[in-house]
Design brief:
Distance between the termini: 29 Å
Radius of gyration: 19 Å
Strand content: 35-45%
Oligomer: single chain
Helix content: 10-25%
Shape: elongated
Number of domains: 2
């Protein structure tokens, strides 16, 4: 197994607006859903069972304003006392699993009027977790992956107070600090192609001028879900792959 420190951003899709409970801002949140999410360690399948098994681990974990950083590097919220004090604004409470998603409530404990005003427009969160992954190529709901997450050690839940956070797929920061969107995508596609067409890379068909346009077409930058990675199904049909 491989160990990864993963940053993965998803929309919160809050069922209710922020409420004041015991004098503190509180909101329901979806931490992460079953599916393929392209994060700092590439495109990883997060199975429902693995998410469900991590529920208890999330109770009381720090909620941060953005992902903790030292310079340009993303780090654990426990990297130092200074990091903890500067980033932590609350805690994760009452985590549970429902409808193939890990869910919980955010409790903001830092008393700051400016922070509260900022949070009222928050639409996005991002999990920071250490995972144990199994290398495996495949697809789930038409999305390619190169690893399967098995075990989670939660570090923090970052609140991103913007419609599209600093760690979004399209922006290329946080989720993908040193790797471009195209590089992540091509890694997943090539892994999948090797599995479906074993002799593909021994043929002339994998030339850059052939494969790159296919990948560019498959990315479809105007789609709604910014971290969706689509397989080149039309290409696989033509080259002998199976749907």
């Amino acid at each position: 197994m491989e160990n990864s420190f993963v940053l993965t951003t998803i929309q919160t899709n809050m069922a209710q607006p922020w409420q004041i409970v015991d004098g503190k801002p509180t909101a329901p949140v979806v931490l992460i859903k079953q599916g393929v999410w392209c994060g700092s360690e590439g495109c990883i399948l997060h199975p429902a069972e693995s998410l469900k098994n991590s529920v208890k681990e999330w109770e009381g974990k720090p909620v941060t304003l953005g992902h903790p950083q030292i310079g340009t590097n993303y780090v654990s919220v426990n990297a130092s006392e200074e990091i903890f004090e500067n980033y932590v604004i609350g805690k994760v409470r009452n985590p549970y699993f429902a409808n193939k998603a890990l869910r919980a409530y955010i409790h903001i404990e830092k008393n700051d009027t400016a922070l509260w005003q900022l949070l009222q427009n928050t639409k996005e969160v991002s999990v920071g977790v250490i995972t144990e992954d199994i290398p495996s190529c495949g697809s789930y709901n038409g999305k390619a992956y190169t690893k399967i997450a098995q075990f989670y050690k939660p570090d923090h839940l970052a609140v991103l107070p913007y419609e599209r956070g600093a760690c979004s797929f399209e922006d290329g920061a946080g989720i993908r600090v040193n790797t471009s969107k195209m590089e992540i995508y091509r890694e997943a596609v090539k892994c999948f192609i090797r599995q479906r067409i074993p002799n593909f890379y021994s043929q002339e068909l994998h030339r850059e001028e052939v494969l790159l346009p296919i990948e560019l077409q498959a990315i479809r930058p105007n789609r709604n879900s910014s971290d969706e990675v689509l397989l080149p199904a039309e290409f696989l049909r033509k080259e002998g792959g199976k749907e």
